[in-house]
Amino acid sequence: MKPRPRKRFGQHFLGPAWADRVVEAIAPQPSDRFLEIGAGPGVLTSRLAPRVSHLTAIEVDRDLAAALQQQSFPNVEVVTGDILAIDPRPIVGGNPLRIAGNLPYNISSPILFRLFDWARDFPQISDATLMVQQEFADRLSGAAGTKDYGVLTIFTALSADVRRLFDLPPGAFRPAPKVRSSLVRLTFRPAPVQLASGEIFTQVVRSVFTQRRKTLANAARTVAEDHGATAVAALSAAGIDPGRRPEALTLEEFARLANVLSRDGSRD
To answer: What is the distance between the alpha carbons of residues 62 and 68, in angstroms, rounded to a whole number?
Structure first.
């Protein structure tokens, strides 16, 4: 009996032919260790397991996790739990680790930010190949000044290089979602900018993008005042025109602004 996708978990099961294509794009090597997010009924698990040294399969659905355990792959460890809540340390270990998964569309963003945290804390995590909604993939590498450019773009650029591998039609999944999907690879690397405070950088990016249609003089007012500065003064010190709009700022410029506010706050 085929497992039935559960709406509350955002489940859309990948078809076998598309799973073959996904695994070929992942290009697993015999020495690789993998973490699979959302293993579901095991369509990727069964294809990855014979080609890698070890695979940890995370699945929040207890019934699907139990079914996976019954498949008895000798090199697969099934973990029943929520990827947003599990402790990564026992999984990551000390050796290189790769990640793969078909992310539920409704929690793709929290999962990705979780992976960014993991990659920062555990440099042995090399990359993640993920199926996401096509519009989400657009936002991962959106160009400055476009509608796709925003908080997700900035934090992705801070943590990883993005490569879009291919798109998948709704019919690649059961049940078919109402949107197209994309397979993307994130290759994790050190941040390309120096940050005096990661916390203040996060505050600046999130605060400014909530008012992306305003000029920076207005959009950055609250976060600047929170750190004892005026927006115009902080922007000028960072070499940024206060008349520009948030969606035009590059990662490097956001970093400069955050670093100025970090220095201003340290003088209080």
So the answer is: 10
DSSP H helices in the chain: 16-26, 45-48, 62-70, 89-92, 108-121, 134-140, 151-159, 198-209, 216-219, 221-226, 231-237, 251-266
**Measured between alpha carbons, how far is residue 217 from residues 18, 19, 82, 145 in Å?**
48, 49, 41, 17
Cβ burial, residue 93 (10 Å; 0-12/13-18/19+): middle
* pTM of this prediction exceeds 0.85: yes
Share of the chain above pLDDT 70, in %: 94
Closest CA to 124 of 153, 156, 89: 89
Q: Residue 27: which residues within 8 A CB-CB, separation 6 or more?
A: none
C-alpha distances out from residue 135 to 26, 70, 113, 176, Å: 21, 36, 17, 16
Residue range 12-41: average pLDDT? 94
* 21: pLDDT strictly greater than 60: yes
Contacts of 197 (CB under 8 A, 6+ apart): 258, 259, 262
Q: What does the domain layout of the chain look like in residue ranges?
A: 7-188, 198-266
User: How high is the pLDDT of residue 4?
Assistant: 58
Side-chain-facing half-sphere of 15: CA atoms under 13 Å: 12
Tokens describing residue 223: 């976060």
Instruction: Tell me which CATH code domain 7-188 carries.
Output: 3.40.50.150
Determine the pLDDT at residue 72.
Answer: 77
pLDDT tens, 70-91? 987 899 999 999 999 999 999 9
CB 212 within 8 A of CB 219: yes
The structure tokens 């069964």 sit at 46
Q: Return the CATH architecture of domain 198-266.
A: Orthogonal Bundle (1.10)
